[in-house]
Specification:
- The chain is of the alpha+beta class.
- Among the domains are: 76 residues, RNA polymerase II/Efflux pump adaptor protein, barrel-sandwich hybrid domain (OB fold (Dihydrolipoamide Acetyltransferase, E2P), Beta Barrel); 202 residues, Chloramphenicol acetyltransferase-like domain (Chloramphenicol Acetyltransferase, 2-Layer Sandwich).
- Helix content is 25%, strand content 25%.
- The chain has 9 helices and 20 strands.
- The strands form 5 sheets. Strands 10, 13, 16, 17, 18, 19 and 20 form a 7-stranded mixed beta sheet that branches.
- The longest helix is centred in the middle third of the chain and has 16 residues.
- It is elongated and about 75 Å long.
- The N terminus is likely disordered.
- It is an enzyme of class 2 (transferase).
- Keywords: Acyltransferase, Lipoyl, Pyruvate, Transferase.
- One of its GO terms (cellular component) is cytoplasm.
Length: 428
């Protein structure tokens, strides 16, 4: 006697802040797998971050609606899961379901559609390569290995990490079409009219990079920014850190700078505002707290994780919070809510080995502080030339929000705090 199944279609949910699409990075399940409620079924990349999507259903995977690397629209089918006791053709669609604790961490489930709505029939799909570990899938994806071409050495054909590593040593015959570098100009005759050179390939901007590009264009288009900068002697701050480290531990330089920035924004609150337009009128919005963002370069592009309510925290407290936040961002695990809502951004491009930058303000914020590398330079102290640990601070600001005097006052406050940290910290 055969067991009938009912297909439940899970629609890709809104992963936060009105996002309309997401790129399917990795399937964590395959057709035929048994899944439980809230088990991660896929990794998707939005304009904010890479997140795991948990299942709102329990049962057997019937259909995977999309291939890895494909961009899916919110509200479109993501996966069909069958439960015992029904007809496969009687599929229901939902963005969530009663009994699911959370479609995504921090996001509840919602039901899409209503009774009587026509549902698509469940279609059979070819069985995906048997892979349990998302790390194995990620390893294969990073090296352009087609899992379907690998014979798994594990139980019942399970593909193991050793199988992927062995495939990496073979001639490049397993590379997926989406990952394989194609000499498009030679193969298809496509020649760029501007340069006269054959096109090797084209890569569309998606996910984080697409969102960052749009934000930068909007910032340059709408914000009349101005920039001020100053050379800063960071010797005293480095000596202070060395003394604290000798006693046990010390906050990082970025934590100290953040503490000084927060104090400076308290004295110059205009730089913690936002200018918004609506109803034919521009308005300055004031906030009762300070949310500091940190420009962070990740493998998937530039993101800005945000530390909320940074005011009132010590340098040590900020140090731990900043490290945890940036680690999640670098690992692609920061929640969408952690990658937005900032009121001021710090860009530590000194870690990239440069001194300064004409930074683009993180729209719709009013300013961004850039921190350059710290290097030995000749500097005059008390009338004498000596070698000091120097850095450059750069402040890009929205000239509609404040004038140069306010921007210079804030920048000078932060610079003075770095040059005389002991006296400043005594008053914080």
């Amino acid at each position: 006697m055969s067991v009938q199944t009912t297909g439940q279609i899970f629609l890709l949910p809104d992963l936060g802040e009105g996002l309309v699409e997401a790129e399917l990075v990795t399937w964590l399940v395959a057709v035929g797998d048994e899944v439980r409620i809230d088990q991660p079924i896929a990794e998707v990349e939005t304009a904010k971050s890479v997140v795991e999507v948990p299942s709102p259903f329990e049962g057997t995977v019937v259909t995977l609606h999309g291939a890895e690397g494909e961009t899916l629209e919110v509200g479109k089918p993501l996966i069909t899961i069958a439960s015992a006791g029904g007809d496969p053709a009687e599929a229901t669609s939902t963005g969530g379901a009663p009994g699911s604790g959370n479609v995504l961490i921090g996001y509840g489930t919602t039901e899409v559609g209503g009774p009587g709505r026509s549902r698509p029939a469940v279609q059979a799909a070819p069985r995906m390569p048997l892979v349990v570990s998302p790390l194995v899938r990620k390893l294969a994806q990073d090296h352009g290995i087609a899992l379907a071409s690998i014979h798994g050495s594990g139980s019942e054909g399970l593909i193991l990490r050793s199988d992927v590593e062995a495939a990496m040593l073979e001639p490049v015959t397993h590379t997926m079409p989406s990952q394989q570098p194609q000499r498009a100009g030679e193969m298809s005759g496509v020649v760029d009219q501007r340069t006269g050179l054959a096109e090797v390939g084209r890569t569309p901007l998606t996910g984080v990079k697409k969102a960052a590009a749009a934000a930068m264009v909007r910032s340059r288009r709408e914000i009349p920014e101005a920039t001020v900068w100053v050379d800063v002697d960071a010797t005293a701050l480095l000596e202070l850190r060395q003394g604290l480290k000798a006693q046990g531990s010390a906050p990082g330089m970025l934590a100290f700078v953040t503490r000084f920035v927060v104090a400076g924004l308290g004295n110059f609150p205009q730089l913690n505002m936002a200018l918004v337009s609506g109803g034919g009128q521009d308005e300055l919005v004031e906030f009762d707290g300070i949310n500091v963002g940190f420009a962070t370069q990740t493998e998937r592009g530039l993101v800005v994780p945000v530390l909320r309510n940074a005011q009132g925290r010590s340098a040590r407290e900020l140090d731990g919070a900043i490290r945890e936040l940036t680690d999640r961002a670098l690992g692609g695990k920061a929640a969408p809510a952690e990658l937005g809502g900032g009121t001021f951004t710090i860009n530590n491009y000194g870690v990239l080995g440069v001194d300064g930058s004409a930074a683009i303000i993180n729209y719709p914020e009013a300013a961004m502080l850039g921190l350059g590398r710290i290097v030995d330079k000749p500097w005059v102290v008390d009338g004498e030339l000596c070698v000091r640990k120097m850095t450059e601070l750069t402040l890009a600001f929205d000239h509609r929000v404040c004038d140069g005097a306010v921007a210079a006052g804030f920048l000078r406050f932060v610079a003075d705090a770095i040059e005389n940290p002991a006296s400043i910290l005594a008053d914080l």
